[in-house]
Amino acid sequence: MRILVVGGAGYIGSHMVKLLADAGHDVVVVDNLTAGYRDAVIAGDFIQADLADRASLDTVLGSGSFDGVMHFASYIQVGESVTAPAKYYQNNVANTLNLLDAMVEYGIRNFIFSSTAAVFGEPDYIPLDELHPKNPVNPYGRTKLMVEQILKDYDTAYGLKSVCLRYFNAAGAHPEGLLGERHDPETHLIPLVLQAASGRRDAIKVFGQDYPTPDGTCIRDYIHVMDLCDAHLLALEKLITHGKSEAFNLGNGNGFSVQEVIDTAEKVSGREIPVIAAERRSGDPARLVADSRKARELLGWEPHHADLAQIVAHAWEWEKHFGGLANPKS
């Protein structure tokens, strides 16, 4: 297949590009490099362009037929979305509309969308399945839900078929150490913990140790980035074969607490990790775990890196070999 990966220089997108290329597909990457890195695109053809620029999209999509488009080019920081909502609505919604309109014009009808568990908001029950009410509590989650709703309308009106993949906590790194997380600033727990282990960070803050969980810290569902990528490829293959829009929750179905992550990181790294106790953050549920049975049943998807120690070990290899280096965007 010939596949366009938008945001393919970012964390999940770059892993996706490598997986697609390894599977023998022809990959074209579009990224504006505001959050991605040119050297993270280690396969396929790269085009530096912005989704806000419709002329650039016309050039890319008009350059030849694509079997599908994968979209990873959203802003993802929940806190920033609260303080700068305009940035999030412009990029995550308006720019996505530019992409969808260009797809419709050039007859590309298969779209894989990187969504999020944040569309659900505070959980009414655990684990969260696809039927759980969707009440996002921040602009980030609302932008993702808006796009999901737009996709339903574009399916009805234009026949644009889509699969929305709602991630829980993406984690880990390429098993061969080729790629990993390089967010700036970093907000994800596992790389933050490992930066404290390597000495790049003085300590890790634990926000709340009095939750109704076995050790008092929040429980989250961590899913390896390569397992996420596997789900994307399966979703695209299913979409092309069956032509039906769907949405899937993606997680391991196992929750691990913040303290368990820290303990595992200490074992994997062989280093003591300083911890600073902090107050709870507003809006942090005690427990978030996915029910991914639908993806397993309909896509035939099965996580291959569900063990927390393996997820942390892959991320630690990245932190050791690459995290301490200066990685200027280029």
Automatic annotation (TrEMBL):
Residue stretches making up the NAD-dependent epimerase/dehydratase domain: 3-251
Classification via InterPro entries: Epimerase_deHydtase, NAD(P)-bd_dom_sf, UDP_G4E
GO biological process: galactose catabolic process via UDP-galactose, Leloir pathway
Keyword entries, A-Z: Carbohydrate metabolism, Isomerase, NAD
MF terms in GO: UDP-glucose 4-epimerase activity
Documented EC number(s): 5.1.3.2
Pathway: Carbohydrate metabolism; galactose metabolism
Top-rank taxon: Bacteria
Catalytic activity: UDP-alpha-D-glucose = UDP-alpha-D-galactose
Cofactor(s), by name: NAD(+)
Similarity remark: Belongs to the NAD(P)-dependent epimerase/dehydratase family.
Subunit text: Homodimer.
Protein name in the entry: UDP-glucose 4-epimerase
Source organism (scientific name): Thiohalomonas denitrificans
